[in-house]
Amino acid sequence: MHRALPVFRRSGNAASIIAPHSPPFMGLRCMSLFVHDWHNENFMESEPLEAKQKWLSDLQTSHPSVVDVEAHLVVLRGIVNSLKPGSPQRAEEYVFSHLSGFEPTDECYEALLEAWSKSPKEDSSLCVLRAKRWFDKIKAPTLQSYHLLLDVVSKGRVKRSNRARAFSITEDNAKETEKILEAMVSPNTNTYNYVLRKVLNPELSLRKVVHWLSKMEQLQQENPSGCIQPNTKSYAIAMQAYAVFAVYRAKAGKGEGREELEQIEALLKYMQELKNDGFQEIEPNTVAYNILISAHARLSQFPQHQDAPLEAEKVLRRMMAIGNSVYPDHLSFSKVILAWSNSKRPTSGKRAAYWLSKLWELYEASNRNESLRPTVNTYNVVLKAWQNDPKNMEKVFVEMLRIERSEENNNLFLRPNSESFALMIHAWVKVDVSRAVMWLEELMQREKDSTTEWSVTTVPDLFQVIVKNAARDPSVDNLVLGLKVFDYYRSSRHPLDAMSYVWLLELGLKTFSKQENDRDRREFVFDTVNDCCSDGLMSASFVKKLSNGNTYYEGWTIEESRDTVAEIFNHW
């Protein structure tokens, strides 16, 4: 039974640890209980990092002699589980600065391993390098230690900016997972699943996934009661491998990917047969079926898969008919909607809206089952399906705003995010610049009012796309809007770029192209040149646009362009 935690009670400068409602002579016994409490792994588990840091600080002040490695481990685990940017580095710094007078235990090094495994944005090479360093310091590696290391090495977070380097890192990490597996004395099913996850890469070969899954089945046959038995996750990873390979082949023009889809269907059938034969750890569940729907959704972007959205719908209807452990969730519907969005058919928007309405119906019919509740990502996919019809897209967006303001949304489960606004702005800017500016201003206001619970942010592209598209449809109204957005961009936290000045110049020259606009054009050009120079963003593209851009028979003529450039450069 859980004991009530002792509390701190201060009297003057003295501090003591006294259990609630206990007499003074019980202090030593309570101190012993208190020490045992923080030696428990679950101690203050649900408390935020700040609370753990305050607890340790108070303990160091009141009873410094009882502070041990386990007490520091409470805070260290708090840093690891905070999931804030830079948590792995903060965890390492904590070990260096606060445990210098102690001998770090294997649990401390495991905590550092966990920190790197939970870091989603760090470069893969750095994660693996740091994780291996801390693993090597563990004196008696446990199965958990190996799994934490495998978790780091097997994650596919390689930056794709340099394809050759990305492939090299992926290949090296795949080999590393296999080496770790060979070094382990008693691997289990989860161990093999980590290896399967890493070799799940079309560039490394689908055969490796099949090889390791077959190896697991072989080990199970040799020792039916052993700890290595393929489970639902193992087969789901294999299904995902076929899905990834199908898209890879379609994108590379090496096939349509239909054979891989057939293999996924075959695996689903095989899993059902295994379940019927009594293998309790294997069941074709919602996750497995969602992989099949996702495969159709990703393939729907290719011309040879125009039937993909309809195939995704068929799988979803199968799930609804089967029910139980295969009953669809909001992700199932989102992937069907994505299939329609990727296909870019004239009916994509209507089909996306239909499936969103069905999802809401099921959510209400299921007594508001959380797994069926539409999310902002669901709505964003619907917005994408309407990308060529901003009026209908705005109707969906307004629906989000209505739900956001409703009482049932008091936990903020549905609010438009940065992507939602970006989709609206990009859609409207091609049709009506003023509507795009309106939504940009709404986003800017929300960015200003952002809180820790919910935040949205602007990006340079949103300012740039408005100025650029305003130049494609020049008018005095669009020039006013373009200048307004340009000023927003210039005063924002984002660094201004040279091309924005080029697009602004183009907008002004086109708007003031006629002879009666000579005075306005001259004033605009010289003001823009001065601002561009002041910001240090004068570029070859800007000069080329001024000297060799579009000219007309009157007004902004070739001669006027040449004379203006000569006058400006003479001043330089």
Low-pLDDT segments, ≥5 res: 1-33
Number of discrete helical segments: 26
Distance between termini?
Answer: 83 Å
What integer is the average pLDDT?
Answer: 85
Please tally the β strands and state the result: 2
Helix content: 55-70%
Instruction: Report the sheet-strand fraction.
Output: under 5%
- Which value, in Å, is the CA radius of gyration? 31 Å
- What's the overall geometry? globular
Largest sheet, order of strands side by side? 1-2
Order of helices and strands: EEHHHHHHHHHHHHHHHHHHHHHHHHHH
The main β sheet shows up as: 2 strands, antiparallel
Q: Which SSEs are present, and which pair or pack?
A:
Elements (H helix, E strand, L loop, with lengths): L6 E5 L2 E5 L8 H12 L10 H14 L6 H13 L5 H12 L7 H12 L6 H13 L6 H12 L8 H21 L5 H10 L7 H17 L9 H21 L5 H19 L9 H14 L8 H15 L7 H14 L4 H18 L10 H10 L4 H16 L12 H11 L4 H16 L11 H13 L3 H16 L6 H14 L6 H17 L5 H9 L9 H14 L1
Antiparallel strand pairs: 1-2
Describe this structure in words.
With 572 residues, the chain is mainly α. Helix content is 65%, strand content 2%. The chain has 26 helices and two strands. It has helices at residues 27-38, 49-62, 69-81, 87-98, 106-117, 124-136, 143-154, 163-183, 189-198, 206-222, 232-252, 258-276, 286-299, 308-322, 330-343, 348-365, 376-385, 390-405, 418-428, 433-448, 460-472, 476-491, 498-511, 518-534, 540-548, 558-571; strands at residues 7-11, 14-18. Strands 1-2 form a two-stranded antiparallel sheet. α11 packs antiparallel against α12 (258-276), α14 runs antiparallel to α15 and α15 (330-343) packs parallel to α17. The protein starts with 6 loop residues before the first strand and ends with a helix. Residues 1-33 have low confidence and may be disordered.
